Task: structure prediction
Amino acid sequence: MNRRRIALVGLGMAVTPHAKSLADLQDRVEVVWAMSRSEERRAAFAAHFPFPTTGDLERIAADRSISAVGVLTPPNTHLEIVEKLAKSGKHILLEKPLDITTKRAQALVAAGAGVKIAVCLQHRFRAAAEWLGAILAADGLGKIVACSTRIPLWRPQTYYNEPGRGVKARDGGGVLITQGIHTLDLMLSLAGPVEEVCGYAVTSAVHRMETEDLACAAVRFANGAVGIIEATTAAYPGGEALIDFIGTKGTAALAGTALSVQWHDGRREDMAAESFGGGGADPMAFPHDHHLAVWRDFLDAIDGNKEPRVTAKEALKVHKLIDALLAAGESGGKVKVANSE
Result:
């Protein structure tokens, strides 16, 4: 099999698990370029990875031998980069979120209609999440009456002191779109769409930042289930995200990469945690296993001419939920989630 020629665009904090994944996939890919406009970032990247570097995005877009690109730049750059790369026929693996607003995210989906776009929402690829998904699909917990999600993360003030962090103009928001998006996307993939929310989204006294570092909401799902969502980066020292299900036949608790399922008939099954990390002060303190799974799925989608598991259109769902959570926080009332738009 000929190796697929790949480029990376963006060499900031998010690049390490992607670069490690591509190193593991060297039998399938050749990394032609790793691009950043920052000479300092190119030098730092080159000190750890053997891939050639460049500061020229046009060079990547114009190279017809490059068939796929990983885009790891700040969210406010995604639309324009996707437009450029998709126009040149390149498939794209895009770091979350799609962009800083749902309007720009929708434009990105439209711009990438002619190529494959996979979004790096890697929590869906955890073994415990996949097992729980199979249980739910087989009606193993019966009718779901409640689903609640808690995301107790910690980021010190130094994290937000970096220019652009937690700022709408670059990141699009705070804890919901930057950190919580992974678990909220996983929740939606397991429980189905949320129909209505009410709650609060605030900047706590723990941080000095523009956007929310604490959100609490009550939610009602389209299937009639109810629950709560709590997401924060103010919960020192940080912990695993938790998604709880209550069904008519039993309950399930997905805590990070661990799962516990208990049925009314006394049966219990558990899956031990694969790993822990990313919940505390170092957001990149986790293995790259699930990024590797995202890349494999993306390459399989290109090779098999099929859709990746998390497409750009699929990722719009969590953006619309986040919009509703923030709108409810501003209005103090109930807000419908724009699932049909």
Summary: The radius of gyration is 20 Å.
